[in-house]
Design goal:
The protein has 446 residues and is of the alpha/beta class. 47% of the residues lie in helices and 11% in strands. The strands form three sheets. The chain has a seven-stranded mixed β-sheet with strand order 3-4-9-8-5-6-7, with helices on both faces. It has a two-stranded antiparallel ribbon with strand order 1-2. The longest helix has 24 residues.
């Protein structure tokens, strides 16, 4: 298997080194750094990994994944687009031993349609669900968006969430293994027990340090992290596991089931709180395992990410083929040179070319992508030709999505959002490991 490309896309110049830490990445605000001339810089993902003490995904981890699952790593893993993790190796340990774990991801519904960038974590999560054959929960944080967006009501975000849920279903999730829930509808019972218990563990100083809250922050925002954090506990979903008893208390055995959370890197602060405190719960849970993605570049280029609030920054999953064509041709930042003669002499710069970046997400053939990159660098492939390739690929991707979306009726939506026991198989060829000492006694006691 070919080694993945380096995580950094461009060399860091001296001016960039000085200001690289000026980038701001948190769950509600993502801003790239600027150089001394005010130019927007690319996100420095290695710097944020170092700052937050995550581990970069390396070739050894990918080789182990392929050896255990028999599946070639997803192109987004091979190309470093999902680039960082916390304890993904421990999830592979559990898969190897045939021990249970579940997937969890989510969506903050701020509009009634997804854009291309929103589909990345869902498409990747769907692939993980297929490879590992494990249960999945998808959280719609309709409460969060109303708390953090002054112009949105809770009625607005709840309706957006239901629309978004249909889009999420169109990504192809297996209903037998998938539960989608709205916070405004579902957070009660054992989930709410976990919210309150976890919130009791967190001093305000810890939450303020993680999210930058101050004296003017409304108390709903301060409380919300406990809700998102509690979603990582298996005991929040007693209905999904075998032998559900509505009268039973939270289960020590279920609490031991860990979670793998695929997400964009800006969501990491939530789950650092869980990793720091999950062992203090009444029934301790393992630290959640995380796998982080980069941001899908905005049409305007380096340092931006697609935003639902800026229609010209994003390809929406409701866009027509003509709209996609116009957005790429008019707004996609080019790495080509100013003149044909310069382009043929100097070559293009794929690292900053948005059309090439989109091809790197959606062209599965590594050899073909390398050929495109090489031709563009040599100047034998023109910017217009590169954009034409990207347009055709995105039109097809969005068209296939829209066809699947047509089949997502209200009845189908209800099926995914009804709490019920999920059905999965996990690793078909586990390598059982003998339990020793205290661990074996605890398992027998449970």
């Amino acid at each position: 298997m070919a080694a993945p490309p380096p995580a950094e896309e461009l060399p860091v110049r001296e001016a960039e080194k000085k200001s690289s830490m000026e980038q701001e990445i948190n769950p509600w605000d993502v801003q790239a750094g600027q150089d001394e001339q005010g130019n927007t810089l690319q996100f420095d993902y290695v710097a944020i990994s170092q700052k937050w003490a995550t581990k970069l995904i390396d070739e050894a981890l990918l080789q182990r994944f392929e050896s255990l699952t028999g599946k070639k790593p997803h192109r987004w893993l091979r190309r470093g687009l999902f680039f960082s993790h916390r304890d993904f190796d421990k999830i592979l340990d559990r898969y190897e031993a045939g021990e249970p774990f579940f997937l969890y991801t989510g969506r903050g519904p701020s509009s009634d349609a997804l854009h291309l960038g929103h589909t990345i974590p869902f498409t990747f999560t769907k692939w993980l669900q297929d490879v590992f054959d494990v249960p999945l929960v998808i959280m719609l944080t309709d409460d969060e968006k109303a708390l953090f967006r002054d112009g949105l009501t809770f009625e607005d975000t709840h309706k957006f969430g239901l629309h978004n849920a249909k889009d999420i279903i169109a990504c192809g999730f297996d209903m037998k293994k998938t539960f989608i829930f709205s916070d405004l509808e579902f957070v009660s019972g054992h989930f709410l027990y976990n919210v309150w218990e976890f919130s009791k563990l967190l001093p305000f100083n810890q939450v303020r340090g993680a999210f930058g809250f101050d004296g003017s922050t409304n108390i709903g925002r301060i409380m919300f992290p406990a809700v998102q954090c509690a979603a990582s506990f298996a005991t929040s979903y007693p209905q999904l596991w075998p032998n559900y008893d509505p009268k039973a208390d939270r289960s020590k055995a279920i609490a031991k089931i860990p979670v793998l959370i695929p997400m964009a890197i800006d969501q990491d602060p939530y789950f650092r709180l869980v990793r720091d405190n999950s062992h203090r719960m009444r029934f301790p849970s393992p630290k959640p395992a995380l796998i982080h993605s980069k941001f899908l570049t905005a049409l305007q280029g380096a340092g931006g990410k697609m935003s639902a609030s800026d229609p010209n920054s994003a390809i929406f999953m409701t866009d027509t083929p003509n709209q996609i064509k116009n957005k790429i041709n008019k707004h996609a930042f080019s790495g080509g040179r100013e003149t044909l003669e310069e382009h043929q002499r100097l070559g293009g710069i794929p690292e900053v070319d948005v059309a090439f970046q989109y091809l790197s997400y959606f062209e599965d053939d590594d050899a073909k992508l390398l050929e495109i990159e090489t031709s563009y660098r040599k100047g034998t492939l023109m910017t217009g030709e590169l954009k034409k390739m990207a347009i055709a690929m995105l039109q097809e991707y969005v068209k296939e999505f829209q066809e699947r979306r047509k089949g997502v009726t209200d009845e189908v939506l209800k099926g995914y959002m009804t709490p019920r026991e999920l059905v999965w198989k996990g690793n078909p060829n586990p390598v059982k490991k003998e339990k020793k000492g205290k661990e074996a006694k605890e398992m027998n006691h449970d």
